[in-house]
Design brief:
Blueprint lengths: L18 H15 L7 H24 L2
Length: 66
């Protein structure tokens, strides 16, 4: 246990064991990785940070509208 969080082995790609990350990967890969070609690591970091900010903000806005 690290900082009160227990580690658990889960099956890769298992929606039932880790639905949040599987949904994130299903959204992230087609949108970011398939649309951009990165020449430098810093370029990738910038695009990914911007996308994560927008993704998180839009997700919060959708849920607060319910």
């Amino acid at each position: 246990m690290i900082n009160g969080v227990a580690m658990a082995d889960i099956q890769s790609g298992s929606l039932y064991q880790n639905g949040y990350i599987e949904r994130f990967k299903r959204t992230y890969c087609p949108v970011v990785l398939n649309l951009y070609f990165f020449n430098q690591l810093e370029q990738a970091r910038k695009v990914i940070e911007e996308w994560l900010t927008v993704y998180g903000t839009e997700k919060l806005m959708r849920h607060s509208a319910m």
